[in-house]
Amino acid sequence: MNSKKQAPVKYYVGIDVGSASVRAALVDEFGTVVAHADQPIQIWEPQSDHYEQSSADIWAACCLVTKKVVCGVDASQIRGVGFDATCSLVVVDKQFQPLAVNCEGQNYRNVIMWMDHRAVSQVERINATQHRVLSYVGGVMSVEMQPPKLLWIKENLQESCWEKAGYFFDLPDFLSWKATGVTARSLCTVVCKWTYTSDGGWDDSFWKIIGLEDLVKDKYEKIGNHILSPGESVGKGLMPEAAKDLGLPEGIAVAASLIDAHAGGLGVIGADVKGHNLPCENQPITSRVAMICGTSSCHMGVSETPIFVPGVWGPYFSAMVPGLWLNEGGQSATGRLIEHVVRGHVAFPELQSKAAASAHSIYTYLNSHLDLIKKSLPVGFLTVDLHVWPDFHGNRSPLTDLTLKGMVVGLTLSRGLDELALIYLATIQAIALGTRHILETMQAAGHHINTLFLCGGLSKNPLFVQMHADITGKPVVLSKEVESVLVGAAILGACASGDFASIQEAMAKMGKIGRVVQPNHGHKRFYDKKYEVFLKLVEHQREYRSIMNSF
Question: 270-333+437-521 domain in CATH 3.30.420.40?
């Protein structure tokens, strides 16, 4: 008998830099996460709405987790590496040394985080220009994008930072530079956060009108004049020093990177759905929205032609899936909001001790507690008199109003665990109602969406998932691999290695469906009423602010 020798499995490393931690995974050619590791990273908050990190701390964490996941693996089987990260701003000098983005002069704190809102006055002035590039960010630029942050640096740190700066990187691009020594930028980052357009490139008139003409003079050397498509191989691959740091073979392919939410979208949105009786089966990928829900949430929808959605970022060509236009809705605080509400409640110590005694997480315990107190009602109906407006950190989409505040209506004098469970439930519902608001705005503009694909930390919470299905009225697809963002990053590495002909091919092979959660259509009327109240809350907030502004 002839025995055919089996080809060795091919592996790819995905590295994901989130807000509070760095994670790495070793992923095989079939999309299975073989090994996984994570490491916390530091956040500084020197004053309100200022959030900073250290690029050195982030890179050290990348090296630590990568060495862990490849330990014991035959190096010849590791074919490529892909990075994704938050869209934070990294500043280095002409010798690539970190520069302080703070008044204290602490150079190691050289990253302005994505969620930093220091540049409010700058973004207001940018939006007042009504420049044509703003039509590609929903008509209004967010304070979380890079131009207002750059303007803040120029106006507040002129001598100590702006004049000394050699390069301004989006964090995903900083990581690919660190790995390869090549300063090329990803089309994803520059299109989504810097106003680059895939057809026209940089618009000189925009940078001049907002007061950053300095960047035009050096032909955009500081912010990127060599642009690569996500998944394209960067330079000559992993350079020796980085290979040693990461514990990976020198010269393996390094991919042009993605923003973390876009990597999550890549990891789930292209999965084969045959046999799951979903409305998106035999429909184009444009019928799907990928929702990446962690500290914040992003809603990624693609289209074959550009769709301009008021208050929703994009359309961005080829920023996530090559050849398709991307619209990106988002909520600035979701996981962070749930944590804020739960941990800030007076009954939190009681919750903590009871959850520990039952060997469950606090959220698993809260979900079980809700089941205990619901009696004969569906769990969601417990909030008939309790309503939350979730914009505790402003509204990203679709209202694009960072001055909006959170609201809670229906509080009592009760201070126990029941009350904590109810406000937790109402907060999750508010986030899901915000998702419905975003989806309806996208559909009104021309998207045709019938299925949600969820990934990220919050997708592990069954209550969060069910509320999104019930409130949007759409089935929710969960990935077989919980770490879809890491799978997305690994898909980049797979494409850079040349093992797949296209990102679409890699998405179909490496993205796998796990569970499908169907909406309870019998609950539709209740959630339609909750949605009515939800929209009334922001009306009332604007009304009372108008009254007080006339004082």
Answer: yes
Rounded Cα gap, residues 159 and 338, in angstroms:
40
Give the 3-state secondary structure of residue 80.
Answer: strand
Could you identify the residue written with the tokens 């809700």?
Answer: 370
Q: Are strands 78-85 and 21-28 parallel, antiparallel or unpaired?
A: unpaired
| pTM (predicted TM-score) | 0.91
Q: Using an 8 Å Cβ cutoff, are 255 and 83 in contact?
A: yes
- What CATH architecture does domain 11-256 belong to? 2-Layer Sandwich (3.30)
Q: What angle do CA 516, 426, 527 make, to 5 degrees?
A: 60
Torsion over CA of 461, 467, 470 and 471, rounded to 10 degrees?
A: -140
Q: What is the pLDDT along the chain (551 residues), one digit of tens a residue?
A: 455 567 889 999 999 999 999 999 999 999 999 999 999 999 999 999 999 999 999 999 999 999 999 999 999 999 999 999 999 999 999 999 999 999 999 999 999 999 999 999 999 999 999 999 999 998 999 999 999 999 999 999 999 999 999 999 999 999 999 999 999 999 999 999 999 998 889 999 999 999 999 999 889 999 999 999 999 999 999 999 999 999 999 999 999 999 999 999 999 999 889 999 999 999 999 999 999 999 999 999 999 999 999 999 999 999 999 999 999 999 999 999 999 999 999 999 999 999 999 999 999 999 999 999 998 999 999 999 999 999 999 999 999 998 999 999 999 999 999 999 999 999 999 999 999 999 999 999 999 999 999 998 999 999 999 999 999 999 999 998 888 999 999 999 999 999 999 999 999 999 989 999 999 999 999 999 999 999 999 999 999 999 998 88
335-427 maps to which CATH number? 1.20.58.2240
